[in-house]
């Protein structure tokens, strides 16, 4: 929690102002019992009505000042806490944007969402309480003790007995609640994960008639969270009865022993009333602290989870001295590259060596799990390799800045991803300042114009979250248009034609030839028909290159390639 307070720096002046207001409010509250004692002892006892009016007016003025300070302090406390939450969420999002895919494997997307929303809200709410109570409460407690001892030192022994008992009860209850609050946040992660899977996979769930099973799965996670929440709230609920018991017992004890002292002539009635007021202020200050402690354990657990994300150092970082390509444009070269996923027993890719040049189409084909998508994911440096070199335009990609590297690449992922917004906004995602003419041209090449114009609003038609209102083939074509509008030096198509029919696939590849004459094109594909016309074909098997050449060359030299071809094409087509 303390580590997160560094995000309060922009509000330092506001915090000082809140501190001054809290001090003024506390002084006003501490001054009132003394005035009350003066009215009772000097006004009521002596029957001096004028004195009562004068002191009563001062009390009213002090009360108004204290109330104004409390209202303004609460306003600025809420403003500072909300601003703190904004800064923390921004810091989390910025850090997550810097993560490599490896960090996303460590912390799930569901957990990151929970940490950015629910965890940040927990910390924000506690900060409001801290600014509103934790400044006022200690002042009230310390000042109340000093003033109470000043009224009657002997009667103050009641507080010496009561306060340690109350503090001990708070510490005992919180020590049992903190682990449960930490567990509670993990249960929320699990619930969010199941909810996210249930919503994104709703079509699959309904297609396989698994709705009841998913409901049961959600119910189990929901009951787990509920059980933990009930247990922790049962523990916390004990605190309030203890507080009220102590409050009432202390009041009775003060009145009991105070009346004895008044009867013996050792204390005045006004002093007893003031002492009782100070005792209540001390105990209410402890009550405010305990109320904060109810939320503090959960906020501490949330703060720990937030700090875990902020403390994660991205695996992929830019070099201290970055380089840029000077003469070459679009040259891609793998030099004996080996790569393993974290925790894997065997490398996903071993000793990969090849070159891809501008004006050429390099196709990558192989069986499922051969490492095709892994290979092209290394080009934008989504992962760092174990050994070897990946060189683009004569510069090792580890020596380039990630931003500079990725501006050279137009990447179309295996799973087409669209964002909520219009079609124009999705295509323009590849190039922010793309003109309408450029967008239309990219859509034409991607064979997307026809279905776009068939939509009610054409290019202004809205794409739903995740692209659920368009088909798989349409999503792929829009993703391709997004890459084309960028006009990069290197195009990477990771199995981006799988959802297209053969006719559209052929038309798109024909249009791409004219568009990518000066660019390097790498295509990952399952279909032989997609790769047959490539300038060079790389055949992968179990992470190794087992064939390299044109279609005709591979038909003669690569058994793996021949097996793939024979499984997809008839003898007439092969001939």
Mean pLDDT: 83
User: Number of DSSP strands?
Assistant: 12
Q: How many helix segments? A: 21
How many domains? The number is: 2
**What is the C-alpha radius of gyration, as a whole number of Å?**
35 Å
Helical amount: 55-70%
Shape: elongated
Classify the secondary structure makeup into a structural class.
alpha/beta
Task: Sum this structure up briefly.
The protein contains 21 helices and twelve strands. It is α/β, with parallel strands linked by helices.
Describe the structure.
The chain has 575 residues and is α/β, with parallel strands linked by helices. The protein has 2 domains: 3-311, ABC transporter type 1, transmembrane domain (ABC transporter transmembrane region fold, Up-down Bundle), CATH 1.20.1560; 320-408 and 526-575, P-loop containing nucleotide triphosphate hydrolases (Rossmann fold, 3-Layer(aba) Sandwich), CATH 3.40.50.300. The protein has helices spanning 12-44, 49-98, 101-106, 109-134, 136-151, 157-200, 202-207, 211-237, 239-263, 269-311, 372-377, 402-407, 423-428, 436-445, 449-454, 472-484, 502-515, 528-531, 551-557, 559-568, 571-574; strands at 332-339, 349-356, 361-366, 387-392, 395-396, 409-412, 421-422, 462-463, 490-494, 520-524, 536-541, 544-549. The strands form 3 sheets. It has a 6-stranded mixed beta sheet with strand order 6-9-10-3-11-12. It has a 4-stranded antiparallel beta sheet with strand order 2-1-4-5, with no helix packed on it. Helix 1 (12-44) packs antiparallel against helix 2 (49-98), helix 1 (12-44) packs parallel to helix 5 and helix 6 (157-200) packs antiparallel against helix 8 (211-237). The two termini are 71 Å apart. The model has no long low-confidence stretch (mean pLDDT 83).
């Amino acid at each position: 929690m303390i580590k997160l307070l560094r995000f309060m720096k922009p509000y330092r002046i506001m915090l000082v102002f809140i501190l001054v207001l809290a001090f003024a409010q506390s002084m006003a509250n501490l001054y009132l019992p003394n005035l009350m004692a003066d009215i009772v002892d000097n006004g009521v006892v002596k029957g001096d009505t004028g004195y009562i009016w004068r002191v009563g007016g001062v009390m009213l003025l002090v009360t108004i000042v204290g109330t104004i300070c409390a209202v303004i302090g609460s306003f600025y406390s809420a403003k500072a806490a909300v601003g703190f939450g904004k800064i923390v969420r921004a810091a989390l999002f910025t850090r997550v944007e810097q993560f490599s895919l490896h960090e996303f494997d460590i912390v799930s997307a569901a957990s990151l969402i929970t940490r950015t929303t629910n965890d940040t809200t927990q910390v924000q709410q506690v900060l409001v309480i801290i600014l509103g109570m934790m400044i006022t409460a200690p002042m009230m407690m310390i000042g109340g003790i000093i003033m109470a001892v000043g009224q009657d030192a002997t009667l103050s022994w009641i507080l010496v007995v009561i306060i340690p008992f109350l503090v001990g009860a708070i510490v005992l209850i919180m020590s049992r609640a903190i682990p449960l609050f930490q567990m509670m946040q993990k249960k929320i992660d699990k619930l969010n994960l199941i909810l996210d899977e249930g919503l994104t996979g709703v079509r699959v769930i309904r297609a396989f008639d698994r709705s009841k099973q998913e409901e049961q799965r959600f119910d189990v996670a929901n009951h787990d969270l509920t059980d933990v929440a009930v247990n922790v709230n049962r523990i916390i609920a004990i605190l309030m009865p203890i507080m009220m018991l102590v409050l009432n017992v202390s009041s009775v004890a003060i009145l009991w022993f105070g009346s004895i002292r008044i009867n013996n002539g050792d204390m005045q009635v006004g002093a007893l009333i003031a002492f009782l007021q100070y005792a209540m202020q001390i105990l209410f200050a402890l009550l405010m602290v305990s109320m904060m402690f109810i939320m503090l354990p959960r906020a501490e657990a949330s703060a720990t989870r937030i700090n875990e994300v902020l403390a994660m150092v991205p695996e992929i970082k830019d070099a201290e001295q970055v380089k840029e390509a000077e003469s070459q444009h679009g040259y891609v070269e793998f030099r004996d590259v080996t790569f393993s996923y974290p925790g894997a027993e065997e490398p996903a890719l071993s000793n990969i060596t090849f070159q891809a040049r501008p004006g050429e189409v390099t196709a990558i084909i192989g069986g499922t799990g051969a490492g095709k998508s892994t290979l092209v994911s290394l080009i934008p440096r989504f992962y760092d390799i174990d050994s070897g070199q990946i060189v683009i335009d004569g510069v090792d990609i580890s020596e380039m800045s990630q931003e500079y590297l990725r501006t050279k690449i137009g990447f179309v992922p295996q799973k087409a991803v669209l964002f909520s917004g219009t079609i124009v906004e999705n295509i323009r995602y590849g190039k922010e300042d793309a003109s309408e003419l450029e967008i239309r041209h990219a859509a034409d090449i991607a064979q997307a114009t026809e279905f776009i114009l068939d939509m009610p609003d054409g290019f202004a038609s809205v794409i739903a979250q995740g692209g659920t209102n368009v088909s798989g083939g349409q999503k792929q074509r829009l993703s391709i248009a997004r890459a084309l509008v960028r006009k990069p030096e290197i195009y990477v198509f990771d199995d981006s034609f799988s959802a297209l029919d053969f006719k559209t696939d052929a038309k798109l590849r024909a249009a791409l030839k004219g568009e990518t004459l000066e660019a390097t094109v790498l295509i990952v594909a399952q279909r032989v028909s997609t790769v047959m016309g490539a300038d060079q074909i790389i055949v992968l098997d179990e992470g190794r290159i087992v064939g390299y050449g044109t279609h005709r060359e591979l038909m003669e030299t690569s058994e793996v390639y021949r097996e793939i071809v024979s499984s997809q094409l008839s003898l007439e087509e092969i001939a």
